[in-house]
């Protein structure tokens, strides 16, 4: 074990570069999966015919596949699928964001749907009878209350997303875990110090997120 | 999810797979050119010249060929210098290179997906790979060998038996080669050479197999390990480009010929391998 | 695009990976259930040091990636003279990781059993451990089954990290099929179907279970 050697200034800077990539990927994937997940969740809650059923199938398949498989598939299999002359190809970071977004949006849509369903039907009916349209009732009555209840499960989903960015090592994305591996490659004496440090970095980032969520919960409750 | 939806889901999935399966029979021939098909109007070489930059896939974890140095942030090695030399030959400026990391597992998909113009990544020319990609002339002559911890009972390929655990990298030719030499040998595959070497250091296997040139790089990194025995295969390295890009292959081959003629190839070889290339 | 001959030619690979994935998931489920129960009890005993251990474990492990834990058992253990192969390191890593989530589920289950039950059991002469084992835990388990079945689905999906340490799981063999045949799309589509064969019925089952439990209570 060589803590001094492992924590050299160069190595620390290299890890920080990895952290930057991790946060960049996580930021976009969280943003996109939240928006898409909300849209899917609302469509399924409102039981829009046909669209709702199709989305149910897609969500169920994505939720039940390993993320590792999705990441690899998006990066290397999708560009080989040529549908009607259309072809999709992505750089490694873009592919990682897309794969994480697909998987997490499916998860988030379930959180959103459950949150909306937890609002008593009577409230919607009351709103409707007072002259609001169904979309207005959703927007003004159900969504604000539902969102509040969704905060804790949403944040824990975001934390999983941040952790899951590490799986992109398999497509050689230069994120935190990948850079940690390169440093460990220099000497086996670095493995424990580097793994401990990386664990602390993930912990600090994620624990901060969960503290923010607890603060939000107490404030909105 | 109720029972009806569950059965609907199953039906949809089966339908999807069948449809995709059916597609394959009709589109199979075009699928392979499909990768480059969309932009085949202008050749890859023209695109490179227009862009003014060569995008090259190299390894980041292979000492002597392509290794990322965390302190400088640079990737260094024979393959990397080769990329710069080709940029000089094709674009007239050796600095016009963008490097992207590939592993043995990801290099062919990345090439076919158009992420990179060419692969210079310790890639052996084989007949099977020729179905997937086009190769330049041989730019490096390697042979498969074994890396073991010093003092290991394994002194060469003849000591490898069905009880030996061999470590290798996913997608490398070395796996097929050793499985042919020693039927039923136990092989564990890792995502890249760094992981495989870490596995050897961690005692996960008895020997690591790949091309001798890569192994010498690992032995230089950690003196507790040594390359044993004579190379037991021929591994001619080629530069891979997308299938059908003949103009680009010709440009690369011209670059290689010029380098060999003006002596810069020998210099490069000496810089990384430490000796003159054996002329054959 | 999808070539069924890949499935036929590499069927033994897929089956070996499939069985190893099931084995790793089942072993990790049993291990993490035991470890998770212990941690959950630690957190509610009221004995401060035990509570601290339980809380620290759960908070720390839940906030770091599974891959990191697997790497620790794979890269770092040899430093202490111990060695686990890829399958073992992966399964131990899965167990350690999942235990944190199961501990939370069980704790929530135990807390939902009214306190009066524990007190009644204690006053009828049972020790704390006896009351826990015979009165509180059996009731808590009922509430814990739906989240547990979700964790099992997660375990099956997460077991794919074994591929990174050559753990011979389904994903590892999908990589092998891909490396051998270059049929990237087919290799991973079939692997995906094998995963779905496991996870979809489980997910369906847990929905039904959840609904039934919701009705009965």
Protein architecture, described:
The complex is a heterotrimer of chains A (221), B (280) and C (217). Chain A is mainly α and 221 residues long. Helices cover 77% and strands 0% of the residues of chain A. Chain A has helices at residues 3-6, 9-45, 51-63, 67-77, 92-117, 121-129, 134-164, 176-184, 191-220. The mean pLDDT of chain A is 89. Chain B folds into 2 domains: 44-142 and 237-273, 3-Layer(aba) Sandwich (D-Maltodextrin-Binding Protein, domain 2); 144-228, D-Maltodextrin-Binding Protein, domain 2 (3-Layer(aba) Sandwich). Helices cover 44% and strands 22% of the residues of chain B. Chain B has a 5-stranded mixed β-sheet with strand order 5-1-6-13-7. In chain B, strands 10-9-11-8-12 form a 5-stranded mixed β-sheet, sandwiched between helices. Chain B has a 3-stranded antiparallel β-sheet with strand order 2-3-4. In chain B, α3 packs across α9. The longest helix of chain B is centred in the N-terminal third of the chain and has 35 residues, at 3-37. The model of chain B is unreliable at 22-41 (pLDDT under 50). Chain C is mainly α and 217 residues long. Chain C has a domain at 18-168: MetI-like (MetI-like fold). In chain C, α2 (11-44) crosses α5, α3 packs across α5 and α4 packs across α5 (86-111). The longest helix of chain C is centred in the first third of the chain and has 34 residues, at 11-44. The mean pLDDT of chain C is 90. Chains in contact: A-B, A-C, B-C. The interface between A and C is large, with 39 and 38 residues. Chain A: This is Glutamine transport system permease protein. Chain A: It comes from Paenibacillus hunanensis. Chain A: It is found in: Cell membrane. Chain A: Residues 19-213 form the ABC transmembrane type-1 domain.
